[in-house]
Structure formats: structure tokens, C-alpha cells
Amino acid sequence: MSTPGLRSALFSDSPSSKRQLYIILASSALVLAPFLLWPSLIKRLFATDFLPHLFCYLRNPALVWTHVVADRLIGMAYFAISVTLAYVVFTAWRDLPFHWILLAFGLFIIACGGTHFMEVLTIWVPVYVLSAVVKLFTALASVTTAVILPFIVPRVFTLIEQAKLSDEVTARLRASEERKEALLREVHHRVKNNLAVICSLFYLQSTHTKDEGTVQIFHNMENRVHSMALVHESLYRSENLARINFAEYAQALATDILSSHGNPDVAVRLLSELDPVIMSADLAIPCGLILNELISNAFKHGFPNGAGGEIKVTLRKKPGGLCMLCVQDSGVGIPAEMDVNKNKSLGLRLVRSLAHQIRGAFELIRVDPGTSANLQFTVDHDVP
Questions:
Q1: How many angstroms separate the CA atoms of 43 and 53, rounded?
Q2: pLDDT (tens digit, 9 = 90+) per residue, 222-235?
């Protein structure tokens, strides 16, 4: 049952609610219209020749006036209630249980209102046959509603019990979900901490060796592990533990790599144009590793001997879930004698392997000036 949503939809300040109010006001105006269009009718309330009920009202115009006003107000109220019930049934026809009993109630209330209007009419016009027909219709509607109602009440109580059980189950599921979310956050937090410890171990090991090649290997491994740790940190801080905003993650990763590779004496500027792309951790981790390799390679090979320039990271989202990740530098570019497709460096082999893992396409392009590394991949539409 969707009772809370239905309640908010019916009683919110929406155009539909305003329309309903306008209908009730217009109907009330139609009921009052005879008094406005026929002013002498008001005078008739205080007349003394109100046949055929001269004796019934004790020749008292004030008593006639009281009966007329009371019957009209009751009839108007009944009509307004019927309009409201009809609006409820029309709005929530599929979600509302026993909507036909509401229609029966509406018919019953309209009949009661018609009876009161007939009481007003028969004060001056002796239309007793019409009045009897209206009362007979009201009697049938009343008896039908009274007969049906006892059979509906047990089923209504059953629905109430089911709603209570549903609320209890929902509360238990919500509590279980909160516990699982807290546990999952703790897992991401601990994984991030463990990866941070591994980064520290790589750094400490690099300080105990004098070989520059070995130091660079430890440094590269530290950056790769750090890129994975950033994913878990982003998930730990995210509202949704199943997805990550890769644009924010890429910006943080690129900034960290710039701070670790940058030369304070030579300015290498980092530019970024990142569309918001939501992806799962299974996709974000390999994409983050690829991004780490591409930016690190741009620093290492694009700006040798302390040269300066720009590195631009671009993330574009296209229709159909297709994404393009591009790292372009303004450095010295790829040597003319190098075949980029046959290059066997560890970084490029890792990038191509990860691109194949995510079913993406990677290419390295010579541009003027510098190099452009492009990764094209598809984001899963089913990411929650």
C-alpha cells in the first residue's frame, strides 16, 4: 500500500488540489445562484403564504428560513464531499483498495444531498411525486451501502494489519541496510588504510636503495597503489557506496600526481575539462590506474630535463554511455623513430591490458606540440 504517497499527493498544494477546490466553489456558486438571480426568492422566505406547508411551519417565516438555509447548507456539504470522493477515486484508481465502495458512498451522499434540496423545493412547490422518487433512490443507496459495509470492514482491518506488518518489515530492512552500509564504509576505510600502508612501505623501501632505476620503480608502484586507495576513499566519503563520481576522483588523482612529480622550479600546469560521469568501483579502479600511468608518462617523457608546459585531462560523456578520457601534453612528443603500437614499456603494456579488461579502446597519437593519449570506454547504465 502506498498510503503516505497517496496522502501527500491528495493534500499537497498542487494544481490538482486547486482544481478540486475550484470545482467545489463553482458548484456552491451554482447552488447559491437562484438566490442571486431571483432576489424575490429571499423575500419568499419571510412570506406568510408559503403553501402547501402553512400549518407545518406554524405560520412562522423565520422557521421557514431556518429549514431552507439548513437544508441547502447540508445539501451543499454533501455535494462537496461527493466531489472530493470522486476526485480521490479518479486520482488513485489503481492504488486505492475498494475504490468501488467510495463510489457507493459518493452515490449515497449525493442522494442524501438531493433529498435535502427537495425539502427546500417542496416548501413552495408540491412536487411530492418527484420528492418520493428522490427519497426512494436515497433509500436504495443507503440500504445498499449499509449492506455492503459490514462485509468490507473485516477486509479493511486485514489491510491495516498488512500495512503494519509491511511497515515493520520495512523498518527491519532499513535497519539492516544501514548496518550493511556502515560495515561497507568500514571496509572501504580499512582497505584505503591498508593501501596507504603499502604506499608507505614502497616509499620507505625506496629510501634504502641508491639505484635510481629501482627508486623509480618503487615510486611508480607507490603511485599505482595510491590511485586505488583514492577510489576507496572516494567511496567511503560518497553517499552511494556502489558508485563514484569519476570526474571528482580524476581531479583529485591528477592533482596528487602533479604534486608528486612537479618541479618547483619549472611550472607544469594541469588543466582539466571533466564531465560528471558516475561509474562503479569495478570500472573506476582500472580507469584510475590508466589515468595514473598516462599522467605519469606525460611528466616523465613529455618534459625531460626539467622542461615546463601543460598537461590537459579531458573527460567527455557521449550518448549511449560512451566516454572518452584524454591526457594531452605540450611536451616534446613521441620520437619519430618510435612505433607506438609496438612499444613494450611496462606502463603502456599495463594501460593496454587494463583497457582490454574494461573492453575499451586505447590509442596514442602524435599532436603538435606533444602527445595525446586517448581511452574510449563504456559506462554501465545499470550502476545504481
A1: 17
A2: 777 877 777 777 66
